[in-house]
Amino acid sequence: MAIAPGPWLRGGAGFPYDGWMSGTRACARVTVLAGFLSAALAAGGDLREAADPDLQARLEQVVSAQGLAGPVSNQHLALALVDLSSPARPRLAMLNGDTMLYAASLPKIAILLGAFVQAEQGRLPLDAPHVQALTQMVRYSSNAAASQVLEWVGERRLIDILESPRFAFYDPRGRGGLWVGKSYGPSPAFLRDPVAGLSHGATAFQVARFYCMLDSGALLSPALTQQMKDVLSRPGLHHKFVKGLEGRPGIAIYRKSGTWRDFHSDSALVEAGPYKYVLVGIAQDAHGGQWLERLAAPLHDVIVGSATARR
Protein backbone atom coordinates (compact mmCIF):
# COMPACT_ATOMS: atom_id res chain seq x y z
CA MET A 1 0.00 0.00 0.00
CA ALA A 2 1.51 3.35 -0.98
CA ILE A 3 0.49 6.96 -0.65
CA ALA A 4 0.36 8.89 -3.89
CA PRO A 5 2.01 12.33 -3.87
CA GLY A 6 -0.28 15.15 -2.88
CA PRO A 7 -0.76 18.00 -0.41
CA TRP A 8 0.07 16.87 3.11
CA LEU A 9 -2.13 18.56 5.65
CA ARG A 10 -1.50 19.70 9.22
CA GLY A 11 1.84 18.49 10.59
CA GLY A 12 4.05 19.46 7.68
CA ALA A 13 6.65 16.76 7.10
CA GLY A 14 4.33 14.14 8.46
CA PHE A 15 1.56 11.95 7.24
CA PRO A 16 -1.14 12.62 4.64
CA TYR A 17 -3.87 12.13 7.23
CA ASP A 18 -2.07 14.27 9.81
CA GLY A 19 -4.71 17.00 9.75
CA TRP A 20 -8.28 17.07 11.02
CA MET A 21 -10.90 15.28 8.93
CA SER A 22 -8.57 14.94 5.95
CA GLY A 23 -9.29 11.26 5.41
CA THR A 24 -12.43 11.69 3.32
CA ARG A 25 -10.86 14.36 1.13
CA ALA A 26 -7.63 12.42 0.79
CA CYS A 27 -9.14 9.07 -0.16
CA ALA A 28 -8.90 9.91 -3.84
CA ARG A 29 -5.16 10.36 -3.42
CA VAL A 30 -4.64 6.91 -1.89
CA THR A 31 -3.44 4.23 -4.30
CA VAL A 32 -3.65 0.61 -3.23
CA LEU A 33 -0.94 -1.55 -4.80
CA ALA A 34 -1.01 -5.30 -5.14
CA GLY A 35 -0.01 -7.49 -2.23
CA PHE A 36 -0.20 -7.28 1.54
CA LEU A 37 2.35 -5.90 3.99
CA SER A 38 4.05 -8.35 6.29
CA ALA A 39 3.89 -7.75 10.02
CA ALA A 40 7.64 -7.21 10.13
CA LEU A 41 7.49 -4.53 7.44
CA ALA A 42 4.64 -2.70 9.14
CA ALA A 43 6.38 -2.82 12.50
CA GLY A 44 9.52 -1.14 11.19
CA GLY A 45 10.26 2.07 9.38
CA ASP A 46 7.60 1.39 6.72
CA LEU A 47 4.62 1.42 9.09
CA ARG A 48 3.40 4.50 7.20
CA GLU A 49 2.72 2.26 4.22
CA ALA A 50 -0.04 0.61 6.25
CA ALA A 51 -2.16 3.79 6.05
CA ASP A 52 -5.76 2.68 5.67
CA PRO A 53 -8.47 5.12 4.51
CA ASP A 54 -11.34 3.12 6.03
CA LEU A 55 -9.70 2.99 9.48
CA GLN A 56 -8.83 6.68 9.09
CA ALA A 57 -12.46 7.56 8.45
CA ARG A 58 -13.59 5.52 11.45
CA LEU A 59 -11.04 7.20 13.71
CA GLU A 60 -12.26 10.60 12.57
CA GLN A 61 -15.88 9.62 13.12
CA VAL A 62 -15.18 8.57 16.72
CA VAL A 63 -13.26 11.76 17.43
CA SER A 64 -16.07 13.86 15.97
CA ALA A 65 -18.73 11.96 17.93
CA GLN A 66 -16.82 12.65 21.14
CA GLY A 67 -16.78 16.38 20.39
CA LEU A 68 -13.01 16.51 19.99
CA ALA A 69 -12.72 18.03 16.51
CA GLY A 70 -11.50 21.33 17.97
CA PRO A 71 -8.60 19.91 20.01
CA VAL A 72 -7.40 17.97 16.98
CA SER A 73 -7.70 21.02 14.76
CA ASN A 74 -5.61 23.18 17.10
CA GLN A 75 -3.09 20.36 17.62
CA HIS A 76 -3.93 19.86 21.29
CA LEU A 77 -4.78 16.22 20.63
CA ALA A 78 -2.75 13.66 18.69
CA LEU A 79 -3.86 10.07 18.08
CA ALA A 80 -2.53 6.95 16.40
CA LEU A 81 -4.40 3.67 15.93
CA VAL A 82 -2.87 0.53 14.43
CA ASP A 83 -4.98 -2.57 13.79
CA LEU A 84 -2.77 -5.67 14.12
CA SER A 85 -5.61 -8.20 14.07
CA SER A 86 -4.52 -9.56 10.68
CA PRO A 87 -0.74 -10.02 10.97
CA ALA A 88 -0.22 -9.91 7.21
CA ARG A 89 -2.25 -6.74 6.84
CA PRO A 90 -1.71 -4.12 9.56
CA ARG A 91 -3.72 -0.91 9.20
CA LEU A 92 -2.73 2.58 10.39
CA ALA A 93 -4.75 5.73 11.05
CA MET A 94 -3.67 8.87 12.88
CA LEU A 95 -4.41 12.52 13.53
CA ASN A 96 -1.53 14.93 14.17
CA GLY A 97 0.59 11.79 14.22
CA ASP A 98 3.87 13.60 13.59
CA THR A 99 3.23 16.53 15.91
CA MET A 100 5.79 16.68 18.72
CA LEU A 101 4.02 17.19 22.05
CA TYR A 102 5.08 17.18 25.66
CA ALA A 103 4.22 13.65 26.78
CA ALA A 104 5.05 13.71 30.52
CA SER A 105 5.86 10.17 31.68
CA LEU A 106 4.97 8.35 28.46
CA PRO A 107 8.59 8.64 27.16
CA LYS A 108 9.67 6.42 30.03
CA ILE A 109 9.16 3.65 27.47
CA ALA A 110 12.30 5.05 25.81
CA ILE A 111 14.22 4.61 29.07
CA LEU A 112 12.79 1.09 29.29
CA LEU A 113 14.11 0.35 25.81
CA GLY A 114 17.50 1.79 26.73
CA ALA A 115 17.72 -0.46 29.76
CA PHE A 116 16.91 -3.56 27.72
CA VAL A 117 19.43 -2.63 25.03
CA GLN A 118 22.07 -2.26 27.74
CA ALA A 119 21.01 -5.63 29.13
CA GLU A 120 21.24 -7.16 25.67
CA GLN A 121 24.81 -5.91 25.43
CA GLY A 122 25.76 -7.23 28.87
CA ARG A 123 25.98 -3.78 30.46
CA LEU A 124 22.96 -4.00 32.76
CA PRO A 125 21.85 -7.11 34.65
CA LEU A 126 18.15 -7.89 34.66
CA ASP A 127 18.27 -9.08 38.25
CA ALA A 128 15.54 -8.55 40.83
CA PRO A 129 16.56 -5.01 41.94
CA HIS A 130 16.87 -3.75 38.34
CA VAL A 131 13.60 -5.36 37.22
CA GLN A 132 11.85 -3.92 40.27
CA ALA A 133 13.03 -0.42 39.31
CA LEU A 134 11.86 -0.94 35.73
CA THR A 135 8.48 -2.14 36.96
CA GLN A 136 8.04 0.80 39.32
CA MET A 137 8.99 3.19 36.51
CA VAL A 138 6.44 1.75 34.07
CA ARG A 139 3.48 0.37 36.01
CA TYR A 140 3.38 3.05 38.70
CA SER A 141 5.24 5.81 36.83
CA SER A 142 7.76 6.34 39.62
CA ASN A 143 9.90 9.39 38.83
CA ALA A 144 12.59 8.27 41.25
CA ALA A 145 12.84 4.88 39.54
CA ALA A 146 12.87 6.51 36.09
CA SER A 147 15.75 8.79 37.07
CA GLN A 148 17.65 5.83 38.52
CA VAL A 149 17.18 3.71 35.39
CA LEU A 150 18.18 6.65 33.17
CA GLU A 151 21.38 6.95 35.19
CA TRP A 152 22.08 3.25 34.65
CA VAL A 153 21.53 3.60 30.90
CA GLY A 154 23.34 6.91 30.52
CA GLU A 155 21.73 10.12 29.30
CA ARG A 156 23.71 10.48 26.06
CA ARG A 157 23.68 6.74 25.50
CA LEU A 158 19.87 6.81 25.49
CA ILE A 159 19.80 9.57 22.87
CA ASP A 160 22.18 7.51 20.73
CA ILE A 161 19.87 4.49 21.02
CA LEU A 162 16.77 6.48 20.07
CA GLU A 163 18.48 8.05 17.03
CA SER A 164 20.29 4.87 15.95
CA PRO A 165 19.47 3.36 12.54
CA ARG A 166 18.46 0.17 14.34
CA PHE A 167 15.50 1.86 16.06
CA ALA A 168 15.12 5.33 14.48
CA PHE A 169 12.66 6.48 17.14
CA TYR A 170 13.78 10.09 16.84
CA ASP A 171 14.35 12.01 13.62
CA PRO A 172 16.25 15.25 14.28
CA ARG A 173 15.64 16.40 10.69
CA GLY A 174 12.04 17.40 11.23
CA ARG A 175 9.65 14.66 12.33
CA GLY A 176 10.92 14.22 15.88
CA GLY A 177 9.68 11.19 17.81
CA LEU A 178 10.46 9.68 21.21
CA TRP A 179 12.71 11.89 23.33
CA VAL A 180 14.07 11.95 26.88
CA GLY A 181 16.36 14.91 27.47
CA LYS A 182 15.87 15.29 31.21
CA SER A 183 15.73 13.03 34.24
CA TYR A 184 12.40 12.80 36.05
CA GLY A 185 13.68 14.87 38.93
CA PRO A 186 14.52 18.51 39.71
CA SER A 187 17.68 18.66 37.60
CA PRO A 188 17.55 20.79 34.43
CA ALA A 189 17.30 19.28 30.97
CA PHE A 190 20.60 17.97 29.68
CA LEU A 191 19.46 18.11 26.03
CA ARG A 192 16.15 19.35 24.63
CA ASP A 193 14.88 17.81 21.44
CA PRO A 194 16.00 19.62 18.27
CA VAL A 195 12.53 19.77 16.71
CA ALA A 196 10.33 21.24 19.45
CA GLY A 197 12.68 21.97 22.36
CA LEU A 198 10.95 19.51 24.67
CA SER A 199 12.50 17.68 27.60
CA HIS A 200 10.10 14.70 27.50
CA GLY A 201 8.48 14.57 24.08
CA ALA A 202 6.82 12.17 21.69
CA THR A 203 4.88 11.85 18.48
CA ALA A 204 1.91 9.51 18.40
CA PHE A 205 3.33 7.79 15.32
CA GLN A 206 6.67 6.86 16.86
CA VAL A 207 5.05 5.64 20.06
CA ALA A 208 2.72 3.46 18.00
CA ARG A 209 5.71 2.19 16.03
CA PHE A 210 7.43 1.25 19.32
CA TYR A 211 4.54 -1.03 20.30
CA CYS A 212 4.25 -2.52 16.80
CA MET A 213 7.94 -3.40 16.84
CA LEU A 214 7.58 -4.84 20.33
CA ASP A 215 4.66 -7.00 19.24
CA SER A 216 6.42 -8.29 16.11
CA GLY A 217 9.66 -9.08 17.96
CA ALA A 218 11.56 -6.46 15.96
CA LEU A 219 12.89 -4.64 19.06
CA LEU A 220 14.72 -7.38 20.93
CA SER A 221 15.25 -11.12 21.20
CA PRO A 222 12.19 -13.27 22.04
CA ALA A 223 13.30 -13.67 25.67
CA LEU A 224 13.91 -9.95 26.18
CA THR A 225 10.71 -9.09 24.34
CA GLN A 226 8.73 -11.23 26.77
CA GLN A 227 10.43 -9.60 29.74
CA MET A 228 9.69 -6.13 28.40
CA LYS A 229 6.05 -7.03 27.81
CA ASP A 230 5.83 -8.32 31.37
CA VAL A 231 7.04 -4.97 32.70
CA LEU A 232 4.44 -3.18 30.56
CA SER A 233 1.62 -5.50 31.67
CA ARG A 234 -0.76 -5.25 34.63
CA PRO A 235 -1.00 -1.43 34.81
CA GLY A 236 -0.83 -0.03 38.32
CA LEU A 237 -2.65 3.23 37.50
CA HIS A 238 -6.35 2.89 36.74
CA HIS A 239 -7.15 5.85 34.50
CA LYS A 240 -7.30 7.00 30.85
CA PHE A 241 -7.24 4.01 28.46
CA VAL A 242 -7.30 1.47 31.29
CA LYS A 243 -10.40 3.01 32.85
CA GLY A 244 -12.04 3.51 29.48
CA LEU A 245 -11.60 -0.16 28.60
CA GLU A 246 -12.76 -1.62 31.92
CA GLY A 247 -16.13 -2.48 30.38
CA ARG A 248 -14.53 -4.58 27.64
CA PRO A 249 -13.88 -8.08 29.09
CA GLY A 250 -11.10 -10.47 28.20
CA ILE A 251 -8.42 -7.98 27.24
CA ALA A 252 -4.71 -7.77 28.05
CA ILE A 253 -3.09 -4.33 28.10
CA TYR A 254 0.61 -3.47 27.81
CA ARG A 255 0.69 0.20 28.65
CA LYS A 256 2.46 3.41 29.66
CA SER A 257 0.73 6.69 30.43
CA GLY A 258 1.80 10.17 31.47
CA THR A 259 0.39 13.16 33.35
CA TRP A 260 1.83 16.55 34.21
CA ARG A 261 -0.29 19.64 34.74
CA ASP A 262 -2.43 20.00 31.58
CA PHE A 263 -0.49 17.38 29.64
CA HIS A 264 -1.99 13.90 29.43
CA SER A 265 -0.87 10.90 27.42
CA ASP A 266 -1.49 7.19 27.16
CA SER A 267 -0.25 4.36 24.98
CA ALA A 268 -1.12 0.70 24.83
CA LEU A 269 -0.85 -2.56 22.98
CA VAL A 270 -4.22 -4.23 23.52
CA GLU A 271 -4.96 -7.92 22.95
CA ALA A 272 -8.59 -9.08 22.92
CA GLY A 273 -8.94 -12.68 21.77
CA PRO A 274 -8.22 -12.73 18.03
CA TYR A 275 -8.01 -8.93 17.91
CA LYS A 276 -4.97 -6.81 18.57
CA TYR A 277 -4.26 -3.12 18.21
CA VAL A 278 -2.07 -0.24 19.32
CA LEU A 279 -3.64 2.98 20.58
CA VAL A 280 -1.75 6.19 21.39
CA GLY A 281 -3.11 9.53 22.57
CA ILE A 282 -1.32 12.73 23.61
CA ALA A 283 -3.36 15.72 24.80
CA GLN A 284 -2.73 19.22 26.07
CA ASP A 285 -5.75 20.27 28.09
CA ALA A 286 -6.95 20.15 31.66
CA HIS A 287 -9.53 17.58 30.53
CA GLY A 288 -7.11 15.62 28.35
CA GLY A 289 -7.15 12.57 30.59
CA GLN A 290 -10.94 12.36 30.30
CA TRP A 291 -10.68 12.73 26.52
CA LEU A 292 -8.45 9.67 26.36
CA GLU A 293 -10.76 7.70 28.65
CA ARG A 294 -13.76 8.54 26.47
CA LEU A 295 -11.97 7.55 23.27
CA ALA A 296 -10.73 4.14 24.43
CA ALA A 297 -13.93 2.06 24.28
CA PRO A 298 -15.32 3.32 20.96
CA LEU A 299 -11.93 2.89 19.28
CA HIS A 300 -11.70 -0.61 20.73
CA ASP A 301 -15.09 -1.33 19.18
CA VAL A 302 -13.89 0.03 15.83
CA ILE A 303 -11.10 -2.57 15.79
CA VAL A 304 -13.27 -5.46 16.92
CA GLY A 305 -16.08 -4.53 14.52
CA SER A 306 -13.90 -3.86 11.50
CA ALA A 307 -11.79 -6.98 12.10
CA THR A 308 -14.97 -9.07 12.32
CA ALA A 309 -16.22 -7.59 9.07
CA ARG A 310 -13.01 -8.58 7.27
CA ARG A 311 -13.12 -12.22 8.36
Provide a descriptive summary of the structure in words.
- The chain is an alpha+beta fold.
- It has a domain at about 100-310: Beta-lactamase, CATH 3.40.710.
- Helices cover about 40% and strands about 20% of the residues.
- The protein contains 12 helices and 12 strands.
- The chain has helices at about 25, 40-45, 55-65, 70-75, 110-120, 130-140, 145-155, 155-165, 205-215, 220-230, 240-245, 290-310, and strands at about 1-5, 30, 75-85, 90-95, 100, 170, 175, 180, 200, 250-260, 265-270, 275-285.
- It has a 5-stranded antiparallel beta sheet with strand order 4-3-12-11-10, with helices on both faces. Strands 5-9-8 form a 3-stranded antiparallel beta sheet. The protein has a two-stranded antiparallel sheet with strand order 1-2.
- A hairpin with a 4-residue loop joins strand 6 (about 170) and strand 7 (about 175).
